[in-house]
Amino acid sequence: MIIGYARVSTTDQNLNMQIDALEKYGCERVYQEKMTGTKKERPQLAELMTILRPGDKVVIYKLDRISRSTKHLIELSEFFEKKGVEFVSILDSIDTSTPMGRFFFRILASIAELERDIISERTKAGLASARARGRNGGRPSKKRSEVDLALKMYNDKKYSINQIVKASGLSQSTLYRYLKIKK
After folding, report:
1. In angstroms, what CA-CA distances link 130 with 77, 124, 125, 138, 141?
2. Is residue 7 part of a domain?
3. Which pLDDT tens digit goes with each residue over 120-170?
4. How far is CA 56 from CA 28, 41, 86, 87, in A?
5. What is the distance between the alpha carbons of residues 27 and 125, in angstroms, rounded to a whole number?
6. Same domain, 21 and 106
7. How far is CA 132 from CA 35, 72, 74, 86, 135, in A?
8. Catalytic annotation on 9?
9. Based on the domain organization, do 65 and 151 belong to the same domain?
10. Are both 148 and 112 inside the same structural domain?
11. Which member of 9, 67, 93, 173 is catalytic?
C-alpha cells in the first residue's frame, strides 16, 4: 500500500498542496496533521506507523513535513527499514528503496537540521541585539485607561462583550486576559 503523510505547523495553514501531490503520486490513503514538526508525538504519524506492513511505501511531500530533526528522521528511516517499508520524499527526490536514495536521505536530513539551527541562532542573536538596545519585542501594553474602562463596563453588567470591545479599543482576547488576571 502507498500511504501518504501531510503536515502543516498551524491550524491556519493549508494541507491542499501536499495532499494533491501525494494523491498524484498514487497514495491510497493520506494521514493529515496540523501540528508542529518539533513534537515527536503526533497522533496521525503514530497511527500511520502502526498500520505499516512489509512492502508498503510511505510518501511525504518534503522531509521537513515528517520531522524537523536529523535524529528523528534517521530513527524513522531505521524503523521503516526494519519493517520492510520504503520511504519517498517527493520534493527532495528521495526513494530509500535504492542505496543512493538512502544516502541522499541522510545527507538532506543533516542539511535540513543545520538550516533550522542556523535560523534559530540568527533569531536568538537578533533578539539579544534588540534587547541590548532596550527593545524587548512583543506587543505594546494597553493603556491603563482602556483596560480600566473595559473592566468597569464588564463589572457594570450592562454591556455586551462587543460593546465593551468597541468602546475600550481592546480585543476580546485581551479583555478576557485582563479579566482572568483580575480574578
Report:
1. 40, 10, 9, 12, 18
2. yes
3. 899 999 989 988 988 877 777 778 888 889 999 998 989 899 999 999 888
4. 11, 22, 6, 9
5. 42
6. yes
7. 34, 36, 39, 50, 7
8. yes
9. no
10. no
11. 9
